Amino acid sequence: MGGSVDLAAAGGLYAATFSYNSTQLAAAQAVQANDAFNRSEILRSLSQVAITLLLAQVAPRYGSVLLLAAGTSCLLATSYLAVRLRPRTERASTAQVRAFGRYGAPLSVWAAVSTMVLYVDRFAVAHFSGAQIAGQYAAISDLAIRGVGMLTFPIVMASHAQLMSTYNGGDIVSAHRALRKWTLVLIALVSSVVVVGYVAAPYALRGLASMPDARTALTLLLCTAGVWQLALLAHKVHEMERRTIAMMIAIVTAAAGGAVGSFALTAFFGPAGAAAGTLCGALIYVLIISIHRRRISTS
User: pTM of the full predicted structure?
Assistant: First the structure.
């Protein structure tokens, strides 16, 4: 019981600090405080690693260590941003708060549900193949999704700054042209990563001999990670046009489709099937967003 209470408390701390940290990061972007944004993210990342290692030595048996470290690191980053942004931000009016709510509430649902698209496959593998294979699958998944995310992060962040600046300046045509350019760059990078990953898989996965079709699973997960990064660019038009409700509906549909696909395919094809189901979920999101984006462009 005590462990459950500790886990719930650490989870609550992380949820609260992460949510507020997200608003502070948004404020930093709004006032173009790029240095404060980058330094706070570096502080959060480094402090989370340091606090995790420290708590692992002090209380190695508590499952709440990771959540507590994540929550504390978010608190430190948020405090840093609060100090740096205080002279540059103003209190929002009631009308602005309502507008933020209409724009942000669907995005909050999007952020919560989007994790299901990339992580529900692990539950499918655990259900059909057991904890050991699920752990190996999770390692491959993290390698693919986080690795691709790290490689594409500079492109996604650079494109976001250019797109929003151009769009807010009233040059909508140039914003759409820039979006197409960054999408092509991202496709080229992701395609290269998938090819390299497929070739290097036999060497990178030597320690996972007990997992069936590990190479296939890694390749499919690399494709999933790439499609997901493309999704983050694909819905930029929705963000700029404040169509966040459409984004919410698309992600809920994609999460449901990916979950059904992962469990159904894992039953027949094992971990590779779970990866294929996850890829289906990401593709569903991109497909829905792309179709709706055309309607926005023609309206």
Answer: 0.71
